[in-house]
Amino acid sequence: MVDWPDQRFLDLVGCEYPIIQAPMAGASGVDLGVAAMAGGALGSLPCGMLSADQVRTQVSEVRARANGPLNLNFFCHTMPADPDDSAWRALLQPYYDEFGVEADNGGTLRLPFDAEMCAVVEDVRPEVVSFHFGLPASDLLDRVTRTGAIVIGNATTIAEARWLDSRGVGAIVAQGFEAGGHTGHFLGSDPAEAMGLFALLPQISDAVSVPVIAAGGIGDGRAIAAAFTLGASAVQLGTAYLHAPETPISDAHRARLKEARTLFTNLMTGGLARGIPGRLIDELGPVKSEAPTYPLASAALAPIRAAAERHGEFGFGPMWAGQAAALGQRLGAAELTRRLAADALAILSRGA
Amino acid sequence: MVDWPDQRFLDLVGCEYPIIQAPMAGASGVDLGVAAMAGGALGSLPCGMLSADQVRTQVSEVRARANGPLNLNFFCHTMPADPDDSAWRALLQPYYDEFGVEADNGGTLRLPFDAEMCAVVEDVRPEVVSFHFGLPASDLLDRVTRTGAIVIGNATTIAEARWLDSRGVGAIVAQGFEAGGHTGHFLGSDPAEAMGLFALLPQISDAVSVPVIAAGGIGDGRAIAAAFTLGASAVQLGTAYLHAPETPISDAHRARLKEARTLFTNLMTGGLARGIPGRLIDELGPVKSEAPTYPLASAALAPIRAAAERHGEFGFGPMWAGQAAALGQRLGAAELTRRLAADALAILSRGA
Q1: Where in the sequence is the domain holding A276, given as residue range(s)?
Q2: In this complex, which of B324, B349, B351 lies closest to A348 when CB atoms are compared?
Q3: Closest-approach residue (CA) in chain B for A326
């Protein structure tokens, strides 16, 4: 058994491989977490679209079906005041008409970590708690830390990584702009300055004291090995797991992963997130100023999306994917995890 | 002496190290090429802003001062018809007023490779000819190939790489969106779909038959090693060489390389290029629809830039830089080349 060149993440978390199955709210759940854990990854449950009771139930299911450390992921955005979204609804009006639905406030909003969720963490005691869009207020963060959970933050810039390091997180995700789903930027950086993983990862690795987890555009064992060469102590893969049958995404979404085309859109939630363009993006363009602030844009879209999906049209909901989507293999998540680790270790151990 | 894990580029070109000193029109020339070649890199002369006579003179100087293979780089854009640039001049009017200059058609335009330049290539016989923004018309390309020069094309997407491969180039640059200077995209891809090197490089490497040269965000030996892990047979570095004293850039530009902030702008030429924001970008925003098509925007800007630089203000000219600019070291280009190669080889040869 060859060692990984940086063992710090493994020593910290205790999973078999330095691979995190990325939490993907709306596109992953118990089955994927259980399968990834069976393969030796750190399994993750995305909790930002769940109620407290749903989190408790899902954690119980995972604990009953899998061994090893578990990561619960939460969002830390500030909820905006309810905006005047009349311009957004007006932009969507042709779709209300087409699908014969009314604007309402349906769908599940992405909500930030709060005292109720913190109490769940204190009860269910996940080994790892990860946060997107910054960190919760310090009283909540202190409570999480006191449970013994390792806290992971997400950085899209070197400044964000330093900010997280100074607040005592246990590890930091370096999220390259290649990543599928929402960019976690939170310190007001200009989206035009988004950084690719190739440049971001070594600079974050140099800047912080804690283990760094590479994320974004990592599609296979080569990329995992390259991430370690650039200073990573672990990797976080989301899109690679979307190919797995345990991932609850539509067949339409899964089929389109083999295309290389992805882009940032704010139409689905109001926040910038990378995905495969579908009908809504094709027709409106990927970024519209009419979309209200994250996460509120999803509400007015929800009835259209639900109706469209009943007709087999998936272009009104997110089809998140990162830029390495086409490199994915259709394997079960456990086998995929083991194969990714073996491929990376073979490259890392062979030398030149 | 340890071998590189992929020797194909070295076998093809015959330089000592699989490192190309990137041609940077306006920011590199004879001195940098000579120094990089002395260190074992493939030296490059950017010819897209030179006259035929200037190319002949510079090649003679390099041949007199350096041994080893030389790359001449040319642009292959289609020159647009002279546009109505009155909106662009109106946007710049406050700067004409401030600096007391008139709009004229000054400055040096970036021009495409043509029959006259092809005759120069046939005369001076560079070992390598590289093209940006596609390839020249097939009659010109055939003439270049018949000189025995190895032709290198530049791809920003997998489709562009396949297109270049099908036209018989000898090697392909995979230019990640991290790269400083102009993105070479030429097949009409949407800039919003620009790919990071981490995802682009392995997918191009899988898609083409010829050696792949990684470019964009490669700042040090770690990154060179990682590029080889992702399928590269060589690397092309521009920004890393901007720190070198042989590079003819302003002190203001060089000093700001240590900042991590770069973004794409079209203000300098009309084409999208990554650089460090200065006064013009800060005041107008980085991308303006008033800027005429590449390369024409530079003409109306030229008198303002010249006057501003006489006052020590460099924010009206390009300060190109890639996203790994802050990783650079202030070393002579020869020593830098040797150190980059040694650092990469040490990583590649140690295994896990």
Answers
A1: 80-108+263-320
A2: B351
A3: B203
